[in-house]
Amino acid sequence: MELDPLILSRIQFAFVVCFHAIFPVFTIGLASYIALLNGLFFANGNPAWERLASFWTKVFAVVFGMGVVSGIVMSFQFGTNWSNFSQASANFLGPVLSYEVVTAFFLEAGFLGVLLFGRGKVPQGVHLFAALMVAVGTFISSFWILAANSWMQTPAGVELIDGSFHVTSWSEALFNPSFGYRFVHMGMASFLTGGFVVAGVSAWFLLRGRDVPANKKALSMCLWLLLVLAPAQAVVGDFHGLNTLEHQPTKVAAMEGNWETQSHAPLLLFAIPDKDAQENLFEVGIPSLASLILTHQADGVVPGLKDVPVDEQPVVALVFWSFRVMVALGLAMIAVAVTGLVLRRGGRVYSHERYLKVLVGMSVTPFIAVLAGWIVTESGRSPWLVYGLMTQAEGLTPSLTGGMALFTLVGYIAVYAVVFWAGIYYLLRVIRQGMLPHDQEVVVDDIERAKRPLSATHIPFDDDAGHPVRS
Amino acid sequence: MQTFDLSLIWAAIIGFGVIMYVLMDGFDLGLGILFPFAPDEDARDVMMNSVAPIWDGNETWLVLGGAGLLGAFPLVYSVFLPALYIGVFLMLAGLIFRGVAFEFRFKSKRNRHWWNRAFCWGSAVATFAQGAVVGTYIQGFETEGFVYVGGALDWLTPFTVLTGLGMMAGYSLLGATWLILKSEGHVQEWAYRITPKLLAAVLVVFAIISAWTPFVDGGVRERWFSEVSFIWLLPLLAMVCAYGIYRWVSHRREGMPFLATLGMFIFTYLGLVASKWPVIVPPDHTIWDAASAPESQLFLLLGMLFVIPIVLTYTAWTYWVFRGKVRTGEGYH
Q1: Distance (Å, rounded) from C-alpha B261 to C-alpha B269?
Q2: Structural element, H or E, at residue A345
Q3: What are the tens digits of pLDDT across the range B104-150?
């Protein structure tokens, strides 16, 4: 069988971006949480907030470090595998992606160092300011990335001259039609991720009776946040879906598994879409509900996949099922958040063993939901790379062969497997150690240590590395 | 109305970024290459401690340069990366492994030998790949219009293997002279001993490369040998620096060998730039062919003019904070 460089490049990009995305999606939410904890400590001086803040800052350090390492590869992927796309869209994407790098470095150079190492060395207000700036910075970073991605979904503000895009309006290109929806949806997803991870870890500590007062506070905060955010995210998601319906109807058709343009379109709960046959082999649905959701009328017309030729349809089953995974997990999040409210009566929420175990398990679900959502929006766009203007095949590096693409795909999987193993293993050690009593916190000496994310923790990598306190 | 040439400004920025990267990441990569030859584990601790606080700042320039290229000279980005596809992968894999080794080596004891290996091999592979990039740049790229049309391994020729090895020798020399500056006792003595050998290796490889390059690229031959020109000063100055390294190591000076090595790199680099200017994607495409639209170059320039001074200040501050000797058994825990 001939190796197809296009498919292999798509798999490689998907793999690298999925691997990378799980880190920033967590750090964006966590950065705001840390800023909030520092703010609470600043406001009322309760040491529980400070201990929580310093524990989660350590976790943040490790995750941020892994995000940076896995992100470096991203900035080269555009050139290695998608050189025609890079060349054509550089006038817009080049500055936008560079600004993301600039933002990240500006952050890392200044405020991150103060946040990680400045506690007790700079005035408390300065430390809080640094925490706020790191939180703001993560949003600025995601602004650039999501502007770039949204532009590829709903291109605007450019004109195509001799095969390259030239920017006619920076504001139209950056704030393109899908940008606002994607930015809000993604920002809330980050907060949900941060919220469920913090809730899960707090529950894990509560189950073991460790640092009960502080972890109760943390859990309570998270559950209030999730109670608001989880349902709100469903509403935002709905608006995002309507925006997609307007600009990328084929993607919505694939999400719904809807082949024919029709009114009274059913909401399919289960189906096996078959692209070759151009129909679903089997389906279970609720009549008219898709029409109701998408058009807010039972007899509203929902576009079908057959409106476009077969070669302009995405991989329907992938989009269809990824969408269902995302929605199902979103509904589970709402259910868990509401259950938490019910269990607050009599304070059972902090001691209900089964509920706490569910919370521990839920801490991985936002990651899966986020990846599923990205698979919907990215693969749902195919075959387009820049929607309606450039296909994936046109954007591919012309000199790329299947063998080359396979070599690097296997290579990146191998490299990331090692990095991921080391990172997650270490992260779990950091979490397991938990919050330290004040007098056991290791004092960090400025002069002798690197100002880098991972050096914010002193926990040894393996068991016999001895006590990490400096001699 | 175009009152100043943005492409020229950008060429200066990218050129500055490249040499900053080469000089700064060069010595920490070089230490990685020298790692297995160190006399003992204490020496390895000193070597790693001497760069641990600064290496990731050094790599800032690589990412800044990569992103800047896409914004300012997309043609370079979209020809170099496909042409060097396998080499770029090897370089990134190497840099990732050594980055992770930096983080975890000090946090482990039982697994330390694995992180030692990751550090050494990662550094060596990344350095070789960077040398091969230079060689490929001298060789030129097979393009049709603005698209690379050559094969996957066109970049791997006897010439680029030689430039790869040359880069390994050069970075090792930077690493050794850096270690002279930052260490004392038996570690410093070891660094003094290996420096002349590395210098000899660098000179031999560079002599072969310099003699070979005019045959690889006719434009270079034309540039250097058609008439006597001031650019002949550049290799001369590089030679003066090389002699300086030798002299100052003999006199057991501590700072000067490193500075002289930096000088040797800078003059060699300027010599390379002088050979090719204004071609940026050899053999045919100049910086003006490779440029993005002026409005894009300008939009990005505003941000860069803001951030580069900050990065420079921060870098200088870090080096100042971590100045002085690194001793065995202290520091980075």
Answers
A1: 12
A2: none
A3: 887 777 878 888 999 999 999 999 999 999 999 988 888 888 888 88
Q: How far is B224 from chain A (nearest CA, A)?
A: 33
Name the residue among B71, B82, B89 with its Cβ closest to that of A400.
B82
CATH architecture of B7-321: Up-down Bundle (1.20)
A444 CB near a chain B CB, below 8 Å? no
Residue B300 CA, chain-centre distance (Å), reads 25
The predicted-structure confidence for B6-57, as pLDDT tens digits, reads as follows 999 999 999 998 999 999 899 999 999 999 999 998 899 899 888 877 777 7
**Among A150, A209, A218, which Cα is nearest to A184's?**
A150
Residue with tokens 């801490």: A363
Does A73 sit within 8 Å of B96, measured CB to CB?
yes
Indicate the Cα dihedral angle B262, B267, B270, B276, nearest 10°. -120
Say how far apart CA B209 and CA B227 lie, in whole Å: 21
Domain boundaries, chain B: 7-321
Nearest to A80 among B64, B67, B88 (CB): B88
Which helix (H) or strand (E) element contains residue A285? Answer: strand A279-286
ipTM confidence: 0.86
Residue A383: asked if its preceding bond is cis (omega within 30°), the reply is: yes
Which amino acid type is present at position A112?
Answer: L
Q: B 216-275 residues with CB below 8 A of A?
A: none
Shortest Cα–Cα distance, A149 to chain B (Å): 16
